[in-house]
């Protein structure tokens, strides 16, 4: 038939992002998914693992096994991949700050299985820059973190040539508010920083930069505006080809090819009418598969119920089947690029390329992406863009079906089972992981551990590649927390800018003026200058977008906002509430640890003599858990269905008035 390819294209790698509870439980999930036709693995690690803490650390409380699998040592990695031949797998690991450590564990287990490292294929995400801007699982300062990334790249170039040692991740930039232009520009600025660091480290000969470039992959987000997403991906490819040719002298066009994997937009999924998420996921998948010249190499889809909680195996199967129907039942893979010669697509691509080039040059002119992180420029830009997106949604100019239009609905049989509609993590998981890591420490050679950590600290103070010392730590039985702790001693910990200082105020919100009047009047009745709100992020949950938007809108409404960023203990939040003499504490928890994190803050306030201080909570919180939190003393619980920020701020004023025996209706 005219226009068809001579041979049908091979499908992309199909994955589901999976991991929870324990290494053994996740191994069983992997095996089930592979049996259903999944062609690659995508490992979700829990927050303690991602941030370099062992399960028994204070900050890990309530977080173990919640959003991924805990991997504290070599024994956990062995259990995670037991019976799965790593030489035959393509494994993606969403891990950033401790990427070197997890790669060391993975490679060691592969070697124990008899695999040749040179045959192992997969990806370590290893993009630390976006962690400072969005997801929050950073540990060390930017320069030290980039050094670790460069060391991994140099190591894999020699030992694991089929491995993607870094996955430049624009996914979370879009979730944090990035427009397509910002997503492309900021991600490419990160890629330039990584490649410059590798080039300048002296570990890779200039003539091998093409080999480095061809192993750099990207991980992107695909939103529901799928025509725009197709253009974005074509723009990404055009700019990447240009940068790698002109800046790094890569002459081979195959090495300059833009290679990316994708997960479609999880934060775009809604709690209200969650069945609508199915069509959102399908449309978003089309944005990264329809264009053959810019098609994803690997796709993983979220499940319909991720706005409600952790998906079950059946939910993940549904998402896998979506990919399989498109790849195997449709005729998509039988044709050349569908958009070649399209005037509409060409114009849209050119527009994104032009805008992204301006953003990239702006970052490079200020000294590169590290400077743009440390000055707060990038974070402020994202907070402002997200605030603008929220305003469009609240005004109705951006339509979200079931949320701000067509909200009338029939009861959904998908959610009729209540809490049974999501995966439940057994609270005993954390205790088992804690006991397990303590037994592991007790059974190893303590002298060998200390010697390995001494070498790691010593090498970290030099320019030596840290991969050999890290592998020595793996073999000695060092834990995740000990490896990261040793490097914390050398590099210190980092606190990223919150981006609130540069965020713009709300304009054109007619209801905000009335809320502002209530804020002023309530402060006057209480005899204080201004109402003071503490926005707190307890535990290791680094998804701070919602907390930052609440802080911005509260500030616009006249509150004085105290926001110290992410990763705080209950004690730190309580101390700040007492020292700052706030009128209200707002806690944001999206990791599922709310039943542990929130009561710890409530207990701390009572112990500090401030049990009268009202506390509200926002997050992905099932109805039964919300009721438990209210019974424990929480004044209000907000979930993703509460999208009108000004209405939330108005309710916060009511909470303060109720707590102080003022007329709540005024």
From TrEMBL:
Entry-linked PROSITE patterns: B12_BINDING (PS51332)
Keyword Transport belongs to the record: no
Organism superkingdom: Bacteria
One Pfam family in the UniProt entry: B12-binding
Keywords: Cobalamin, Cobalt, Isomerase, Metal-binding
Cofactor(s) annotated in UniProt: adenosylcob(III)alamin
Residues of the B12-binding domain: 530-659
Assembly mode: Heterodimer of an alpha and a beta chain.
NCBIfam families associated with the record: acid_CoA_mut_C (TIGR00640), acid_CoA_mut_N (TIGR00641)
Family listed: Belongs to the methylmalonyl-CoA mutase family.
Protein's name according to its UniProt entry: (R)-ethylmalonyl-CoA mutase
Species this protein is from: Micromonospora tulbaghiae
Species lineage: Bacteria, Bacillati, Actinomycetota, Actinomycetes, Micromonosporales
